[in-house]
Amino acid sequence: MLAGVVTETFPGERRVALVPAGVKALKAKGIEVVVEKGAGLRAGFDDESYAKEGARLATDRAAVFAESQVICQLRTLGANPRAGRGDAELMRPGQTIIGFCEPLTSAEPIELMASRGVRTFAVELMPRTTRAQSMDALSSQAMIAGYKAALLAAATLPRMFPMMMTAAGTVPAAHVLVIGAGVAGLQAIATCKRLGAVVSAYDIRPAVREEAESVGARFLQLDLPTTNAEDRGGYARAMDDSFYRAQRELMTGAVAKADVVITTAVVPGKKAPVLISADMVSRMPRGAVIVDLAAERGGNCELTRADETVVAGGEGGEGGVTILGPTNIAASVPDHASRLYSRNLVAFLLHIVKDGAVRTDPSDEIIQSTLLTDGGRIVQRRVREILGLDRGPAEGSGG
Ligand code: NAD
User: Fold this and answer.
1) Which residues are the active-site residues?
2) Is the pTM of this model over 0.90?
């Protein structure tokens, strides 16, 4: 079995799917690795460090695709439809591709992968079970995103996070509100707390309260009907417009008091709910900062623009509220993000490879959840449903 690692081509991407320690772990289990030269450079792993762990280096991408039974990526063509387009030509029928695929966003790039006859495993479809925890790349990268969001907020705010009692006077602690306390939100809470801020948090899943409190946040109690807010998979459900309107009204006071708001509220496969209106932003203190981690899905703040810095209010771009909407934030911590992703990938590979071949056994929950394309078609049931692929050609083109 030969696993190939290629350079990530998504604009601004600095991570690599497998780090040298991952090569070592795979080799120990009989899986050889070939790495495209330079693939790890932007994450801080040079070619020599891969060679030292026993990887073979290949000069070009086409050679890696041509040789490998399994291709390891962060963003497959599905999650990199423009820059990754050329990979379609390199894919071989029966080859296995593992990585983020954004399967709930758009059918077209995934259908292209299917048409090339490759077997694709989408890591974001990993079940949230104890057994799959070590393979959960969504969580490892969300954790980093939450951490870095807190740092971005702290570095942008024209105030300090901790209370300081100094000879020159006392400065109060910054107030942070985290909306959405999943993996990213909990790490944002913990990081802001470590930096000395006073942190509040809100999530529509009532079960989260205890976790948010355990990492140091005060949980906001809003009078909203949230008993049905969680689905069986532990994810938030999409609520209707009247719910979100009520939520915005009830959160207006807490947002107005916050120096920093970090939002992470998403619903799988849906546009992110708008939880902070322009009017709410206008009530925030001068210099306040919003870091919107839902920017890639449209944003939790009405004013967010993906990968741009927006300054609302103030004069000449100064003194207003700064809204940051980073979309690929884990890539800005490429060393650790790659190491954790690589661990996830190694655990997953060792799970699916048996006797030198990739298993597609549908009775295995992990395989059944993540296997996206096989034998020329999209096979994942939930993805077919969400993309409307079984409804007939007129409705089935995705979007
Ligand atoms: P996510 O990234 O899908 O969403 C972020 C958070 O936003 C969620 O907590 C969600 O409830 C919240 N949210 C959605 N709409 C909101 C709204 N209108 N207002 C406020 N908050 C809103 O979440 P995630 O980090 O991927 O976690 C989802 C669930 O999966 C959690 O229960 C988490 O504990 C669980 N999980 C389990 C495992 C495991 O068991 N292996 C691993 C990771 C996550």
Assistant:
1) 128, 133, 136, 139, 235
2) yes
